[in-house]
Every structure is written in structure tokens, then in C-alpha cells.
Design goal:
Largest sheet: 8 strands, antiparallel
Distance between the termini: 74 Å
Strand order of the largest sheet: 14-13-10-11-12-15-22-20
Helix content: 25-40%
CATH superfamily of the largest domain: ATP-grasp fold, B domain
CATH class of the largest domain: Alpha Beta
Oligomer: single chain
Shape: globular
Structural class: alpha+beta
Radius of gyration: 26 Å
Number of strands: 36
Length: about 625
């Protein structure tokens, strides 16, 4: 058995691997960049080694530094987590060549499934159904456009080395094809160093169903049933659940058997996921489920499988890597209850889901007080920072209940009770999603969020009850059922008027009643009201004084990046939601849009500009201001 494990990763997955290693009596070694010197995974490990500057290309993606750290600390194994070098066959070979245990599949298996076009060809040979499309070597625009016409629009462009939704575009007609292809190639080059693509027929009612598989070095392969990951935004998974709603036993048997065949076709060892796309226009049917790709690593959403099977997948990884056979046979595995996971991201839904970075001055949840309510896999604690250099995930919130309805309610309660400040999160967006009738009735497909986006993004404007709640918190009267007359409260001093400001609006109020489902927090400058995963921030002001907030139409850079397109000019009239420019950051393209109807009165950048976090990019003045 492994005695000392180096985790070649960061954040929540590094912390999660360490928890299992610690339980198994295995010592742990963390690696960290400059940005992560004080990170939770560093504090949680038995030892930690600095491996370079903040950019991942100079630290977490430099295999030689990681192997040197393992040698320096006497580690006998390396676990790559997910992302970074987890699916890099050359790194796996280097680890093995250095005499270390690689906690992952054989390099040959990674290579076999690493390129989507070659993987699909192998699956066809193994009798695994695949989506119709184009896998050819001719990557010219002309050939790709012709093949798209032959397949029939809409089509999906996918980077052959892609993953995590990067380098992927849906194209609805021929006129859009070339622009979408170029955007896809830019993103694929930035993320994977490979701009080759494949084409697939777009499934009209697609469900994303994936199967957890596990193999060992003794020739055993099992599946641990399926997960449904259909709820996605821009191809990034948002909410995952297991088992898949509407999956009958015959279809489950067929899809899981196909997943096992796929794993055996590449002599698979360790944890892996076979991803399928299902045409759910007539429900889930075995003859309408197609192979998409294999992820040769642990998945972000692995906790839902752990919850329904009672299996610790990281423990299985460590045991299999040590040469042990799989701990359970197929007939010993079964589904128990329903599990659901939501990905809590540091991003602002009201600003087009732009990543939000900075220090977590306040970070609490119902799990802070009662850990029996669910599970939170986090890589940060209150006081830590969300870095602009890496993925903006704050945590994964997971629940396990007897039924799907109970799981939805439990997850909504946890998300609704989250308190995060000043970093913005998608908690309110997730809460709204869970409350949708169609979601509760399992009427799902991968377009679910995109089709309802306007309804799912929370309203930033507080209603009268939120203003009143803020006044109550500012007055230090946290009693939800207080209905005594203003100016008199039993066993309390007389109520006093409070002047609060928000987004240029100032009000003087006397807090009379709290919202039962709202919580509050105060710091030196703000009164914060948390409700259903949202935060409403109010500024304290003294009576008789004005308050001037930042210009509401200032569009600032949420993180360091490069402006790759500017769509407006100074003096131009714009409408709410209109794209103003595109910022490339965190290896993805982010569209910055107008917050309201108005006029561009300031433009600080041009295409090609490199910008720092919080740099003013463009200013929009509201239409009513211009008319005044």
C-alpha cells in the first residue's frame, strides 16, 4: 500500500483526496504556486512544496517540478486529481519512469481515449454506439464546412483534445459556421495546445448521461451506475444527479454494459467515466444513446456516485494503484437512494456569469452548524481568496436522500442558506434552477438552462421586504415575528431610524419585521441581507448626508485578461444585454454586456489590450440620465 501520497493538484479536489488518504493512514504532500502559498490544501497536507509562479503553465502544469517534489519529500505515489496533468500520458510515463506509483490509468489508455476522433473510432470497433459526425484529418475550413452541410445543421464543433466544455460550439446554420470554428479553435489552442476539431450531429433533445467505470490490474472492470449531468451552461455542468431520472432497468443495463465494453477496449485501470449523449425526445431508450468521450480520471461530480453506492472512489483509486483487486464485484454494487450535487462558482450571474475574485470575508452555510444536512467539498474557508489564475469553483454542495424530490428540497435548503461576501456566487441562480417545475418533474435536456436563462438569473434589485430586513439587521433587532409598535419594543430600546443606500438609492427606514428565510451580516461599511442564495449589500449612511456609489454603468475587468474584440464606439447607443466587448481570461472567452439601455460615454481599451483585474473597460450612461 502507498505510504506517502503527493497530490499534483489544488483546491477542493486536493483537499478531498487528502481526507481519504488521512483516513487510510497515508501521509500527504501538497504542491503550491505563489498564489496558493496560504491555500487550504497547503494547510491540510502533512508537507507542502513550492513549485513556481502563479500561472499554471509555470507551476501545476510543469511535470518535472512535481516529480522533483515527490522525490524531495519521499513520496512513493502521485495522484493527479482532475484537470491539469491528470490526462497527460507523457506525465504519467514520467511518473512511472521515476519509480513512483501513478494513481491513474496506464498511459496507453489515456492516449487511446485522449483524442476524441481516435476514441470514437476505437468505440465503433468495440461495438459501442457513437454519434454520427466527421472525424477526418482534413481540417481546412472548406472541408469542415462541407462536412457540416453533409451532416445537416445544427452541428456541434468539438476540440479533439477538449474537455470541460472548452473548445465546443453549437452552430445552427452555414452562415455562422466559420466564425464559430475560429472561436472554437482559439479556445482549444489556449486550453489544450491543439486546435483540431471534429463535428457531430446535434441531438435535438439531448440528455448528458455518463457511467462511472473502474478497472484493476487483474482484468476486472465494473460500473458504478450512471449519473445525469444534463443541466449545463455553455457546456459546463452545473447540477448533477445519480441515478438518472427516467432510467428504466433495461436501458440502464444496456448503457452500463456499453460503458464496461468501452473500458475493456483500452485495458482500463482505475477510475474513469464514459460519457454518452441520449436523444430523449421519446424518453431514455437504449437505441438512442451514443458514446461521446471517455474521461480517464476522476470526475468533478464523482461524489453523487459515492453517495448512492456507499463507495469511496478515491480509496478504490489508491488500492488499485497499489496493485490490489477491486474491493467489490459487480453483483455487490447497488443503487441506494438519490444524490444531487451543485457546483458553487465564484461568478456573477447578473453580469453574464463573469468570474468573481477576491477574499472570502464571509463564508457560511447551514452545514457550518449541522454537517448531517449534506456534504460540502470545498477548497477554501472563510478568509481565503478566490484567485484569478484558476478555475473559479468555490465548493461542491452534495446531498443524499431517499427520493429525488427529497434531494431537491435538501439541496435547495443548503444553497438558499449560503452566505458569501464580497465574492459573488451562482448560489441564487442554482436555487432558482432547483425551483423550476420542469426540473422537479425531470423534464430535462442540455438546453434546459439556456432556454430559461432570463428566468433563472436572480433579480439584483431588492424588494421592499429586503430593504426592511436590512433596516432590522442594522438596528440589531433580529426577531422575525416582532410586530410591536414602532418606537416601543419589549425589553429593548426604542426603535431608531436607519438610513441605508444601495446603487445610488437612499432610504430612511425603521426596521419592523425580518424575513423568516433571510439572514444578515454586517461589516464596517455594509449591511448584508442573504436570501435564497443571493446577497443584497446596503451601505450605512448618516442621516442628513448623501451617498455616492460607484457608477452603475462602469464595466470593469473581473480578472486579468486580454480584450480580443470591441463591438462598440464612444457615443454609441446600446441596449440592455448588448455585447460591448469580449475578454479572454481563464482560457475562456467572456462577453461583457450593457447593464441597461444607454450610451457609451467612455471606452478605455481596444482589441488586443491586456487588462488587470478591476480595470475600467467601458462606461455606459443610462438612457434616462442622458435625457435629463
Amino acid at each position: 500500500m502507498i505510504t506517502k501520497l503527493l497530490i499534483a493538484n489544488r483546491g477542493e479536489i486536493a483537499c478531498r483526496i487528502m481526507r481519504t488518504a488521512r483516513r487510510m493512514g497515508i501521509a500527504t504532500v501538497a504542491v503550491y504556486s505563489d498564489a496558493d502559498a496560504k491555500a487550504l490544501h497547503v494547510r491540510s497536507a502533512d508537507e507542502a512544496v513550492h513549485i513556481g509562479p502563479s500561472p499554471a503553465a509555470e507551476s501545476y502544469l510543469v511535470g518535472a517540478k512535481i516529480i522533483a517534489a515527490a522525490k524531495e519529500t519521499g513520496a512513493d505515489a502521485i495522484h493527479p486529481g482532475y484537470g491539469f496533468l491528470s490526462e497527460n500520458a507523457d506525465f504519467a510515463r514520467s511518473v512511472i519512469a521515476a519509480g513512483l506509483i501513478w494513481v491513474g490509468p496506464k498511459p496507453e489508455s489515456i492516449e487511446a481515449m485522449g483524442l476524441k476522433d481516435a476514441a470514437k473510432e476505437r468505440m465503433i470497433a468495440a461495438g459501442v454506439p457513437v454519434t454520427p459526425g466527421y472525424l477526418g484529418e482534413d481540417q481546412s475550413v472548406e472541408r469542415l464546412a462541407a462536412e457540416a452541410d453533409k451532416i445537416g445543421f445544427p452541428v456541434l464543433i468539438k476540440a479533439v483534445a477538449g474537455g470541460g466544455g472548452k473548445g465546443m460550439r453549437k452552430v445552427d446554420d452555414a452562415a455562422e459556421f466559420e466564425a464559430a470554428l475560429q472561436s472554437c479553435r482559439r479556445e482549444a489552442t489556449a486550453s489544450f495546445g491543439n486546435d483540431q476539431v471534429l463535428l457531430e450531429k446535434w441531438i435535438t433533445s439531448p440528455r448528458h448521461i455518463e457511467v462511472q467505470v473502474f478497472g484493476d490490474s487483474h482484468g476486472n472492470v465494473v460500473h458504478l451506475f450512471e449519473r445525469d449531468c444534463s443541466l449545463q451552461r455553455r457546456h459546463q455542468k452545473v447540477i448533477e444527479e445519480a441515478p438518472a431520472p427516467g432510467m428504466d432497468e433495461a436501458t440502464r443495463e444496456a448503457i452500463c454494459a456499453a460503458a464496461v465494453r468501452a473500458a475493456k477496449a483500452v485495458n482500463y485501470e482505475g477510475a474513469g467515466t464514459i460519457e454518452f449523449i441520449a436523444d430523449a425526445s421519446e424518453g431514455l431508450r437504449a437505441d438512442r444513446i451514443f458514446f461521446m468521450e471517455m474521461n480517464t480520471r476522476l470526475q468533478v461530480e464523482h461524489p453523487v456516485t459515492e453517495e448512492i453506492t456507499g463507495v469511496d472512489l478515491v480509496e478504490w483509486q489508491l488500492r488499485v494503484a497499489s496493485g490490489e483487486p477491486l474491493p467489490k464485484r459487480q453483483e455487490e454494487l447497488s443503487i441506494n437512494g438519490w444524490a444531487m450535487e451543485a457546483r458553487l462558482y465564484a461568478e456573477d450571474p447578473a453580469k453574464g456569469f463573469l468570474p468573481s475574485t477576491g477574499r472570502l470575508e464571509h463564508f457560511m452555510s447551514p452545514l457550518t452548524f449541522d454537517k448531517t444536512l449534506g456534504r460540502m467539498d470545498a477548497g477554501v474557508e472563510e478568509g481565503d481568496s478566490i484567485s484569478p489564475f484558476y478555475d473559479p469553483m468555490v465548493a461542491k454542495v452534495i446531498v443524499h436522500r431517499t427520493s429525488r424530490a427529497e434531494a431537491i428540497d435538501a439541496l435547495a435548503n443548503l444553497l438558499g442558506g449560503l452566505e458569501v461576501w464580497p465574492v459573488r456566487t451562482n448560489a441564487g441562480f442554482l436555487w432558482n434552477t432547483l425551483g423550476e417545475d420542469d426540473f422537479r418533474e425531470a423534464k430535462l435536456d442540455t438546453g434546459f438552462i439556456g432556454d430559461r436563462l432570463a428566468n433563472l438569473v436572480p433579480d439584483e434589485m431588492p424588494d421592499e421586504e429586503i430593504w426592511q430586513a436590512a433596516a432590522c439587521f442594522a438596528s440589531d433587532y433580529p426577531t422575525p415575528d416582532d410586530t410591536l409598535p414602532i418606537g416601543f419594543r419589549l425589553n429593548a430600546p426604542p426603535a431608531r431610524s436607519i438610513t441605508l443606500s444601495r446603487a445610488g438609492e437612499t432610504r430612511t427606514l425603521v426596521g419592523e419585521r425580518l424575513l423568516p428565510h433571510a439572514t444578515g451580516y454586517t461589516d464596517e461599511e455594509h449591511i448584508l441581507v442573504f436570501e435564497h442564495g443571493q446577497v443584497f449589500a446596503f451601505n450605512r449612511t448618516s442621516r442628513g448626508t448623501g451617498h455616492h456609489s460607484a457608477h452603475d454603468g462602469d464595466i470593469i475587468a473581473p480578472m486579468p485578461g486580454k480584450v480580443i474584440a470591441v463591438d462598440v464606439t464612444e457615443g454609441q447607443t446600446v441596449t440592455a444585454g448588448q455585447r460591448l466587448m469580449v475578454l479572454e481570461a481563464m482560457k475562456m472567452e467572456h462577453a461583457l454586456t450593457a447593464p441597461f439601455d444607454g450610451t457609451v460615454t467612455g471606452l478605455s481599451v481596444s482589441a488586443g489590450s491586456q487588462v488587470q483585474v478591476e480595470a475600467l473597460l467601458v462606461r455606459v450612461e443610462a438612457a434616462q440620465e442622458n435625457a435629463a
